[in-house]
Amino acid sequence: APLIEATKVFRHEPERMVALAGEGAPVVSEYAASELSGHLRIPLHSARQLLGDAIEVAHRLPRLWQLMVDGKTEAWRVRAVAKETRRLSMQAASWVDAQITHGAQRRKPNNAAPQLVDEAIKKFDAELFATQEQRRLDGRGVWVDHDKTQGITRQVSMNLVAPAVAGPAVA
Asked: How far, in Å, CA of 143 to CA of 158, rounded?
């Protein structure tokens, strides 16, 4: 009887599947990052990020993946794009992938990604765009930081002028 009780306490739960990349990408075992961490001798959070970036690029940014495989861009640049696109819908990520890999694109992928992701959000995700715009507008103001130990004063200004609102003129 004591052995039966002990096995109930140490019962193994089935492994869960987790999403480490964006919408439409395959899920992986919750232990995958842990195993990668051990093999590469890197921290678990770094392994999780590396695995998520690889899945993101291979499954949601296939054109960019091919550029990297062909040696036409560096892996670190591709990973920078993956970090930006992870929150996008599949359609928006596919659009960013096409824009970044287009022959006329003269910027490096990691430099082009932030602007293209913003455009994709505006084009494909009106709700997220509205949330970001509200956050941007809420950030208006001026902050002054005086560091007494070094005698330095730093002033930071953000969006001091409210955007013009179209409407009837007020007399």
From this structure: 9
Nearest to 155 by CA among 146, 164, 166, 167: 146
Q: How many Cα atoms within 13 Å fall on the side-chain side of residue 86?
A: 18
For residue 87, what is the DSSP state? T
Instruction: Please check whether residue 140 is in contact with residue 162, taking contact to mean a CB–CB distance below 8 angstroms.
Output: yes
Global pTM reads: 0.71
The whole-angstrom separation of Cα 60 and Cα 90 is 7
Q: How confident is the model at residue 146 (pLDDT cuts 50, 70, 90)?
A: low
Nearest to 137 by CA among 165, 157, 163, 164: 163
Quick one: residue 15, left, alpha or beta (phi over 0 = left, psi -120 to 50 = alpha)?
A: beta
- 45: three-class secondary structure by DSSP: helix
* pLDDT score, position 15: 84
Query: CA 121 to CA 89: how far, in whole Å?
Result: 9
